[in-house]
Amino acid sequence: MTPEAVSDGDTDYRNPLLAEIIANLGFAQRFGLGIPLANRALTDNGNPPPEFGFLPELVTVTVRARRDPRT
């Protein structure tokens, strides 16, 4: 996965066969849907956007709490 792929909504799987099996078993709704859904939910809730980190062996995501408007 690359920063460009995340921002474009592309999908990239280390194991495409495993991803297909998970989808066929009903554990995934649709390929490429998760990040856009999460972004929309965070925006609707007033949270800042997620922060992605990319290393050769892993991708991290940080989801921050929404800011209290009283502070």
Strands of the biggest beta sheet: in what spatial order? 1-2
Helicity, as a percent range:
25-40%
Shape: globular
Structural class: alpha+beta
Beta-strand fraction estimate:
5-15%
Low-pLDDT windows of residues = none
- Whole-Å distance between the termini? 37 Å
Q: What is the average of the pLDDT values?
A: 80
Order of helix and strand elements from N to C terminus: HHHEE
How many strand elements?
2
Rg measurement, Å: 14 Å
**Number of distinct helices:** 3
Number of spatially distinct domains: 1
The largest pleated sheet is described as: 2 strands, antiparallel
Walkthrough of the structure:
This protein has 71 residues and is α+β, with helices and mostly antiparallel strands. The chain has one domain (3-62). It contains three helices and two strands, in the order αααββ. It has helices at 3-8, 16-24, 34-45, and strands at 51-55, 58-62. Strand 1 (51-55) and strand 2 form a beta hairpin. The termini are far apart.
Q: How is this fold's topology laid out?
A:
Blueprint: H1 3-8, H2 16-24, H3 34-45, E1 51-55, E2 58-62
Provide a compact summary of the structure:
This protein has 71 residues and is an alpha+beta fold. Helices cover 38% and strands 14% of the residues.
List keywords for this structure.
71 residues, two-stranded antiparallel sheet, 14% strand
